[in-house]
Write a structure and sequence with these properties.
Length: about 675
């Protein structure tokens, strides 16, 4: 914070360097000496005063408020940054351990709240939050220092060997055994790790430090003390030995502001020590023996053998499964309100996969209330013999049409939907193409009629691997989560380089983020922002976004804000949206509070249709969102109402679970 006495004397004068301030004081003293010694030199004194005023070094008139912005450029360290340190908060984080804070997707670059403090002894009455207190310590004398920490609940004290945050080391902690340790205020000997070893520090230097604090229950505290070389007991670290790390700030009306809060939620220069875990997703990808896996960047980057290339390998047959309700039929007219989501095909998710995917790993800990079996299981796995059958049949037909050209390299993914009329398969293969001397990707739908031993292509049921996908997001004052959403989608794009991707954000005048500037700084290939006024109306926002899509043969994909995108999310959406035939609504894996992508625990939201992809032409056939009956600022049934109308319009909905597709717990 700025020194109040400095404000009162110099008002709003902009001093651009410490050197200019010192020079002004020196010239002022010289002026007094000249006036005292040279009684007869009035003429020369007047000339000297005019010279000083001309160069802008005289005090200015005090303004009503003190706004010191130029101090940021003072060398060494800003006056505004002395005697306090930065503190960032993350809310709605369950758990007692510091690891629960470090695991959160927003940590450390997108804090929910920011402030400063002039004390390393904080007491708060809130619950379920994490905090990070960081800045510099300036030791007054050379010697060996000892630090100690106390907290309720867990905490860690990190100190760098110099001012560089990259050299941080953990010196003291409360926790690390069960993750539920705590101590009283001024209690520094409850656990051995509360007290650090001796650390040699030097006066005149500054040392970066980090305090990480996780609080689960209300009425908590964190306290860091030190034992200076001349002390035998621990004492508080006085504010005169502290300074802030951040230099993008100013003070107005005694309120501390950050320049980037409005336009750039991610703090690019914010220091962060290396996280103590790696996401299981990245670990699994690096440990796989087979390169071409259904959710690997290697498989997604393979060139496509399009359906047109192999369209005459099989004959075409009629495809109309028993769960399809013909549009305008008596069955469609008699479908009751919200009955569509309870139809057996969607209630139990009958599609099977091969080989087994990670949805079962995600389901190992099923956490939630009123759960049924379907909430706690992954995709049903097809047996190997049944999965091999359509592959063998298709490869035989392929070899007849293209002799000595293709050889099976890897069975990447088989999806089977069994019905009384027959079995539909999506077969995805990595094939060696000897004519092109490369490995290519083949992903096609095939069908076997009941009691038949042959495969055929289901009529008008093939996916377009080149379709534009418009992701739709509706937001209001969720700046930090918008930042995370854009980053997650950008991570997907950086690995796939999928140019047929457009993000449409409908923003209800968010005051905590400039959505347009965030998107302009991102690497996303296409995006647009639609701004609406007033209260947040989800149905209205979705319909407005859909109306902005002009291409009838593109996919409109409703999404949710608090999600983590798997790398194959866009590819999955294209595969399961068939124009004129099928929509795609994968259930979210809703993570429990305190659980994240590297240690998932929660349940599959089988009855949720928040994620919904359908071709724009098919959307128009359904009539779109019912924004008259659901024009409200709270959710309640609009997704089920839309599902009913999709089913009544004669469309199928694929409900396959997607690995690594997570929804984070959050407060509304």
């Amino acid at each position: 914070m700025a020194d109040k006495s400095f404000c009162s004397v110099y008002g709003k004068k902009k001093i651009t360097s410490k050197k200019s301030l010192t020079g002004f004081l020196q010239r002022k003293q010289q002026y007094k000496k000249i006036k005292f010694l040279m009684l007869g030199g009035m003429f020369l004194a007047i000339i000297f005063i005019k010279f000083v005023l001309k160069n802008g070094n005289a005090p200015q008139k005090q303004d009503e408020k003190c706004k010191i912005v130029s101090l940021v450029s003072i060398k060494e360290k800003d006056y505004t940054l002395k005697n306090s340190v930065n503190i960032h908060y993350w809310d709605n984080i369950c758990g007692y351990a510091v690891e629960d804070l470090k695991s959160h997707p927003m940590f450390p670059y997108s804090p929910f709240r920011q402030d400063t403090t002039d004390s390393l002894h904080l007491k708060l009455t809130e619950s379920q939050f994490g905090a990070r207190i960081f800045g510099y310590i300036h030791p007054p004398i050379d010697g060996f220092y000892v630090f100690a920490i106390s907290s309720d609940d867990c905490s860690e004290f990190w100190l760098s060997s110099d001012e560089d945050p990259l050299n941080l080391k953990l010196l003291a902690e409360v926790g690390g055994i069960s993750g539920k340790e705590w101590s009283y205020e001024n209690q520094f000997d409850k656990y051995p790790r509360q007290e650090s070893i001796e650390v040699q520090l030097y006066a005149g230097k500054k040392y970066f430090f980090d305090v990480l604090w996780k609080q689960e229950r209300a009425r908590g505290h964190v306290q860091v003390v030190w034992k200076k070389p001349i002390n035998i007991r621990f004492k508080s670290i006085e504010r005169i030995y502290l300074s802030q790390y951040d230099n993008k700030s100013y003070i107005e009306n005694k309120i501390y502001y950050h320049d980037y809060l409005k336009n750039d939620l991610k703090l690019p220069n914010l220091p962060s020590h290396r996280k103590m875990f790696n996401k299981a997703y990245n670990i699994n990808l690096s440990e796989r023996k087979t390169v071409y896996h259904r959710d690997s960047a290697e498989f997604l980057s393979l060139s496509h053998i399009t359906f047109n290339d192999v369209s005459d390998v099989l004959t075409t047959c009629t495809y109309s499964p028993s769960w399809i309700i013909e549009a305008n039929s008596e069955k469609a007219k008699n479908l009751g309100k919200y009955e569509g989501v309870h139809l057996p095909h969607y209630y139990n998710i009958s599609t099977r996969i091969f080989p087994r995917d990670q949805t079962w790993d995600h389901s190992s800990e099923c956490i939630g209330e009123s759960l049924k079996l379907m909430h706690c299981q992954g995709n049903e796995v097809e047996n190997e013999v049944s999965a091999q059958w359509p592959v063998n049949k298709y490869m035989m037909a392929l070899s007849i049409k293209f002799p000595n050209r293709f050889k099976l390299h890897t069975i990447v993914n088989i999806e089977s939907a069994h019905d009384v009329y027959g079995d539909r398969y999506l077969i995805e293969l990595a094939l060696e193409d000897f004519h092109e001397s490369k490995i290519s990707r083949l992903s096609v739908y095939v069908f076997r009629s009941f009691n038949s031993n042959k495969l055929c292509y289901p009529e008008d049921f093939q996916w377009n691997n080149n379709a534009m996908v418009h992701l739709i997001l509706t937001v209001k004052n969720q700046g930090a989560w918008v930042q995370h959403y854009i980053e997650s989608l950008s991570n997907l794009y950086s690995k796939t380089k999928d140019e047929k991707l457009n993000l449409i954000i409908v923003d209800f005048e968010s005051y905590d983020v400039n959505v347009t500037e965030l998107l302009a700084k991102s690497i996303l290939p296409h995006w647009q922002v639609i701004t609406l006024n007033g209260k947040f109306y989800k149905t209205l926002a979705i319909q407005r976004a859909i109306n902005s899509i002009k291409e009838a043969d593109s996919i409109a994909l409703q999404t949710d804000l608090h999600i983590e995108f798997p790398i194959n999310f866009i590819d999955n959406s294209r595969k399961h949206c068939i124009q004129g035939k099928m929509a795609f609504s994968p259930p979210l894996m809703r993570l429990a509070c305190g659980r994240y992508s590297y240690n998932p625990g929660g349940f599959w939201d089988i009855f949720g249709y928040t994620i919904f992809g359908i071709y724009k032409s098919d959307w128009d056939k359904t009539g779109g969102m019912d924004d008259e009956n659901f024009l409200q600022d709270k959710r309640g049934g609009e997704d089920w109402d839309f599902v009913d109308r999709v089913i009544k319009s004669g469309f199928e909905i694929e409900r396959l679970r997607i690995p690594y597709f997570f929804h984070y717990s959050h407060r509304k």
